[in-house]
Amino acid sequence: MARDLAVWRGPTPSGGQPRTKADRVLRSILIRRDTILAALLLLVCGIAVQLFRSFEGARSAAQSVERTYHILNTADSLLFAIKDAQDGQRGYLLTRDEVFMQRYHSAIAKEQPLCGRLAQLVAGNPVQAARVQEIERIARRRLELLAQILQADRNSDHAAALALLRTGEGQRLMDALGDVVHRLESEEEHSQAQFGAVARDRQASLKWTFLAGFVFLLVLLAVAGVSTDRFIRVLQRAERRLRESEERLRRVLDNVPDVIVLYDRQRRIQYINSATTAITGMAPADFLGRREEDIWPPEISAQVVELLETAIQTKTPQDREVDLLLPATGQRHLLSRVVPLLDEAGAVRELVGITHDLTEWKQAQETLRRRAEHELNILQSMVAATPVGLLMLDRNLRQVQCSQRWLDDLGLTRDKVIGRLHYETFPVLPEIWKDAHRRGLSGESLGARDQSFTAPDGTVHWVNWQIRPWGDQGETTGGIIIFSEDFTAHRRIESAARESELRYRGLFEHMHEGLAYCEMIFEDGQPRDFIYLAVNASFGLLTGLQDVVGKRVSQAIPGILESDPELIRTYGRVASTRIPEAIEVWVEALQMWFSISLYSPEQSRFIAIFDVITERKRAELAAREWRRAFEQTEIGIALVEPVSDTFTAVNATFARERGYLPEELIGQSIAVVNPPERLELMKQIVVQANAESGHAAAEWTHLRKDGSRFPVYLDLTGVRDEEGRLISRVVIAQDLTERKRAEQERHRSDELYRAIVRNLPGTGVFVVDRDLRYVAVEGDLPARIGFARENLVGRTVREVLEPSLAAASEQRFHLTLDGGTVNVEGEFQQCPIWTRYAPLHDASGGVFAALALSTDISAQKRAEREILRLNEDLELRVRNRTVQLEAAVKELEAFSYSVSHDLRSPLRGIDGWSLAMLEDFGASLNDTAKGYLSRVRSETQRMGLLIDDMLLLSRVTRSEMKRGTVDLSALAHGIAGRLQEEQPGRRLEFQIQDGLSALGDARLLEVALTNLLGNAVKFTGPRAVARIEFGQAETHGERTFFVRDNGVGFNMDYASNLFGAFQRLHSASEFPGTGIGLATVQRVVRRHGGRAWAESVVGEGARFYFTLGADQ
Amino acid sequence: MKTRIILLVEDNPSDADLTRRALDKARIQNRLVVAEDGEEALDYLFGTGAHAGRDVSILPALTLLDLNLPKISGLEVLRRIRADVRTRRLPVVILTSSREDHDIAAGYDLGVNSYIRKPVDFAQFALAIEHLGLYWLVLNELPPELENGVHE
């Protein structure tokens, strides 16, 4: 950021303009601050002078006071010294003690210096100096007096001494001295008081001066603080504004979509805005401080460098459009402007490059151009495809564009029209047209109808036309557009119709049949529609259509084109081929049947002469339907001629049921299907059917062609015509064979179920209807438990059962009648009964009755009790047996324990003492004896191993299983490691599959694996390299583990002995061992619920398999 | 000189002699006291019965304990040693023919210091005894009350 800012500051013009206001404020603050500071300085000087003066005054006053105190003290000391001398002289005179003399002398010694000091102290004051001289004189005199008395006394001139005393001069001198001293002191005290007052004044003045000075200082500080604070704030504000202004400008530059680059004099890049990075797809660091040629490959940079150099040389802004292929953003079309920034001396200081990316603008221009072309194309195709005649001419009447229709109407081709002058294409145009063209070019719109026009090929065309000027927004006329509608064809039809009318009018009007004269309209060779050119009076009467002439059929009968396409096709065929046709057709649009004769008087025209035959057609169809119904119905129907009693018609069913084809029966007498013995009876029935009432019915027997008989239900009806004459007899014969068989079946089935129910031992069936009334009671049980059938049927549950029982029973029946089933166990007359209640459904699924099926379950109950008793007995026996077994196991454990101890101890003794013998007496034994002793030792050790293995085997058998997930691979790796350690001299290659794990007892599985792998190591002894593999396989869908070796193997004949205890397939000298290992493996595997087996070929190794039970 | 006592509790005299022989061969010179049953072992340790009046402050530095003993079983002997405040820190090694899990577990439960199974092969047995002696009598630091040993 700091770097960016530094880069940025370069191009800022001066920064002065935005700072003007801040400067003004700053300047006013500075002036005000200087003024205040000057005033304060003056004030401080005044205060300092005042302070000095006060201080000096106070000091001199204090000195005066101090001197006064000295004077007072000295005067007092002098007075006391004189008194001391007097006291000392008197004391000596009275006591003759030399102590007093000392005091006298020291006092005298003080007098001189004290007087001198006093004189010095009062030197400046003449009055006081005179007093001091007085004091000095009086003190000298007194001391002299004392000395005289003392002298006198020493000379033993007591009288003189006494005389001197008695003069009282001593006392007077002392009084005078005290008086003078007092005056001196009071004078000094007075002046001291004066000086004290002066000193206090000075102190007070000092204090106030200080206070004033302090207050001024505070004010000064406050003013200075406020000023500084404001000053700082103004500075900060100015700084912030500057920053904001810079930030604003930076943001503006960064949001300008143009690339802005600032170069220094050496064309090194100093600044780039974010558009630069956006357009180039590069980071700012790729630009700053570098030249263009350092950044871009020469083919890109050359143009830019040249532009920059030109700007530097000419010192004028340079513009150029450059095409650059930028690595990141592809081909760009750029408009670059380089502006040299000049310093005051007019030299180029910096360069600003502003590059506007015109790529998108260019692309947009290109897109616009393409769109315009596209639109023009569309417009041209639209004009060409316009379904009216359209010709577009420019100002020079050159043919610019025309529609296909126009060309078609006039039989022209496009290449003969476009680009040519109109009058070139149409050399002989009437003046009226040329006039119209001129008017059009002058901006007028005009048009006319029913104009004839001669085409270049000489044909006359009838047209409606319009001329419109065209141009740019109507300001100048670019040319004219001619719209034309050629109706020459219409005119042709009209004239044809007129001719036809004349020709056929007579015939037309008087025909019973409807007649329509029409012109077919073809499109793409297909008939699309037709126009009624003329119709006769019958047309309207028959079809109900009015005023159709001149209309298209699609207008006269809306929807006919869609509903009756076949009709239009037929008309089209006739109109185009001109081959007459006659059709009977159902016209969907009119809901009528027509019989139509068609012919074509001339190409593409046709005449339809028709009659409406709807009624006839309907009758035909109805008859056909009846016939079909008669033929196809599944009931045998026959028509009989009533006089001769012969079949006139039979349907397929009737014939088939009797074993005939229909035509075999027709014409035959009814006797062929009737049994001869019943023929007479039949005749009576026929008489009844032929009578006025006309109907008879009977269950009858018919004969088949093969002579067999079958039951039928016959229905005979006489048929009479309008006059009541009997004309036929309808015989309806329903074959009853199936129904009879079904009835028989039902009866048998009923009988079957009834027999089953009745004969089920110890069972009762009770059926109640919805009113809970017994409707059926079957089986041998009801009577046995006091519910005899004859007492129940026809009575309700409530009537039969005692109240308490009835309520429960009713509840169950109700539940069953609602569709549920209930099972109940109960006891009736000491007989345990199990009853199942079940609903009986009718064909519609509703419950019409409830069934209660009761079974005597006393035998079952007896069996249950027996099983219970046996179970208890068995449990007791198992408990007893378990106790015995546990005792046996305990015994076994004790046995093996004692084996482990008691058999091993003597063995150790034998071994130990044999060794002792060898060690201690080896010298006196010969080699045979030593050999025997060694045998003794090896045999004992072998027995020790045997015991160990037996113990292991027994432990494997009885130890408690602790199941868990065991990592067999890791286990095998561990064992393999140990085996290798035990056999350092051998090369053992173990190949152990990874990730094998099983659920089992880790210790037991380790025992098993140790035995298997140990065996493998043992039996590969003769091999130079033993290869031993442990892995997993799948046999018979069971997970199987195996240990494979390349050892000596064994003979499969003895494989069955392999896993027995003490079974060995090799001699001990060959492969030592106890023969217990595999028995142990077998035990371990069996305890896991698995099995073990082995495969081998002698000399080719062995493979031992084991599984660990189904729960793996 | 102080000699640490080894107490061997072994009912089989042959085994006892073999043990003595093994110790001799391993040049372990410590005094070997043999107790022929559990009762005698306890009497020796606590100065009762046949050993009444023995200075019980002198305790063996190592007790080799067989399990299958007349009168009082090895495990019971161990239990009583551990139950008595005087002998509860005694180093006791079970030296037995049994390798039954429950014997080993019971031995450790009762606080035995080590469990050695006697091999049938005497050479291996002698080696085991040598290791035992070396470990327990030379390397092992005894609890303070057993540092007394026997003055000779």
Description:
The complex is a heterodimer of chains A (1112) and B (152). Chain A is of the alpha+beta class. Chain A has 7 domains: 17-228, Four Helix Bundle (Hemerythrin (Met), subunit A); 257-357, Beta-Lactamase, CATH 3.30.450.20; 388-486, PAS domain (Beta-Lactamase, 2-Layer Sandwich), CATH 3.30.450.20; 490-618, 2-Layer Sandwich (Beta-Lactamase), CATH 3.30.450.20; 633-730, 2-Layer Sandwich (Beta-Lactamase), CATH 3.30.450.20; 742-856, Beta-Lactamase; 960-1107, 2-Layer Sandwich (Heat Shock Protein 90), CATH 3.30.565.10. Helices cover 54% and strands 23% of the residues of chain A. In chain A, helix 3 (98-121) runs antiparallel to helix 4 (126-154). Chain A starts with a helix and ends in a 5-residue tail after the last strand. The model of chain B has no long low-confidence stretch (mean pLDDT 85). The longest helix of chain B is centred in the last third of the chain and has 18 residues, at 122-139. Helices cover 39% and strands 18% of the residues of chain B. In chain B, strand 2 (5-9), helix 1 and strand 3 form a beta-alpha-beta unit. Chain B has 152 residues and is α/β, with parallel strands linked by helices. In chain B, the strands form 2 sheets. A 5-stranded parallel β-sheet of chain B has the order 3-2-4-5-6, sandwiched between helices. Chain B has a single domain (2-139), classed as Rossmann fold (3-Layer(aba) Sandwich), CATH 3.40.50.2300. Chain B has helices spanning 13-25, 38-46, 74-83, 101-109, 122-139; strands spanning 2-3, 5-9, 31-35, 62-65, 92-96, 114-117, 150-151. Chain B is built from 5 helices and 7 strands; from the N terminus they run ββαβαβαβαβαβ. In chain B, 41% of the residues are buried. The interface between A and B is medium-sized, with 25 and 20 residues.
